[in-house]
Amino acid sequence: MAAPRSTSTRRFSPQLEGFCKTASALADAHAAEAILVLAERPLDWASVQECLGKHTMLVAADTEDQLAGSDDEEGSEANFETLLLGMGDAPVYERLTQALLEAVSEDLLETGSTVVTLYSSFEPSVIDSVSLIRLGEHLGKLTVRDLRQIQTKVPTETLKRVIDLAVEIGREGREGKPVGTLMVVGDHRKTLELSKPMGFDPVRGYSAAERSLSDTKVREGVKEIAQMDGAFIVSANGTVIASAQHLSAPASREISLSKGLGARHWAAAQVSRATEAIAIAVSASSGTVRVFQNGEVVLRIEPLNRAMTWRDFEAEADRDRGAASPKPTKSAKSKAKTTKAKAAEALPPDQSDSAQDAGG
Ligand SMILES: Nc1ncnc2c1ncn2[C@@H]1O[C@H](COP(=O)(O)OP(=O)(O)OP(=O)(O)O)[C@@H](O)[C@H]1O
């Protein structure tokens, strides 16, 4: 049984109280759906909750320690919905964005919600800022990570085009039905060696110009073909080389994926591990787009209800990739479940021979 967590060291300072009251008033004035606290250390959650009042409350933090006592687990003094970010030194703007994306993907917030956020922007670990964020406007302009940080031989223009197409497929589906797909971009010769047609390939026999993703008609055709089983193979210059392909890259013990991701996502992870290609998986069930490189998710884009635009990240272009890279995220609650099922999760559905091997 978990011991009750002590709050004795967590002061509810007059400053924190002032910000909580301000956040609550702001949420009332703008009919905000929720108040999100981005915490850098555990707070006196009971007092924070009391002060924030009746609003839906979320707390996001980088580590489980920082979230301690905030959720509805035994021994907690509050019942915030918690979001574990694991983003280390990422700037507050990125962490807030990730927290909001996570909240949307966990169905804690709607994509069009208005949210009041409390966070620390000037003095580390001290809540000193409050913002009113309209998610529709904010998240529509963002991706979780800067595309340019994906270091690949595939030109950014091609990647952007394929990812935009994937996002459209995930968001729009086809004729009211959700559609998932898989696109593998770059290193197409090696990718072809690891694939075989699943049946009829609709792009076969067309000239390269007729298969170029720079052409709107080709992109529309890809959306049609995406309803079929299998993967697209796209060259670095944005030409569709093949479609409806079954990928069978070798399993790697380095790969582990979140629970709930099935054969399509395992195929994406494995082909990106076995080749220099970038694999882009669109989940039919959620519309989420995941970009895989070297067996890992390096970018995740949630299906927002409006067109995504790409920001210019000049200021961050030279930043060290590792330091700037948010780790894969998960809410604290789903993480607990994930840990229990770890061995099972680490295996692709069709490779259940050795949990230890695959879990790495
Ligand atoms: N190795 C593969 N190569 C190409 N396509 C594949 C492969 N494995 C699965 N797929 C495609 O993915 C589809 C969905 O499979 P599955 O439901 O197991 O994947 P998933 O990762 O759970 O994705 P989703 O979230 O879209 O359901 C399959 O019908 C098939 O079209």
Automatic annotation (TrEMBL):
Protein name, UniProt field: DNA integrity scanning protein DisA
Q: Which Gene3D superfamilies match?
A: DNA integrity scanning protein, DisA, N-terminal domain
| Record organism | Botrimarina hoheduenensis
* InterPro entries noted in UniProt: DAC_DacZ (IPR014499), DacZ_P (IPR048544), DisA (IPR050338), DNA_integrity_DisA_N_sf (IPR036888), DNA_integrity_scan_DisA_N (IPR003390)
Q: Where is this region: Disordered?
A: 316-360
Enzyme Commission identifier(s): 2.7.7.85
* Protein's gene: disA
Q: Which HAMAP family match?
A: DacZ
User: Which reaction(s) does the protein catalyse, per the Swiss-Prot or TrEMBL entry?
Assistant: 2 ATP = 3',3'-c-di-AMP + 2 diphosphate
Where does the record place Polar residues bias? 351-360
Which keywords does this Swiss-Prot/TrEMBL entry list?
Answer: ATP-binding, Nucleotide-binding, Nucleotidyltransferase, Transferase
**Residue span, DAC domain:** 144-303
Disulfide bond as a keyword of this entry, yes or no, is no
Q: Which SUPFAM superfamilies does the record associate with it?
A: YojJ-like
- Pfam families for this protein: DAC, DacZ_P
Taxonomy of origin reads: Bacteria, Pseudomonadati, Planctomycetota, Planctomycetia, Pirellulales
One term of GO molecular function: adenylate cyclase activity
* Composition skew (Basic residues), residue ranges: 330-340
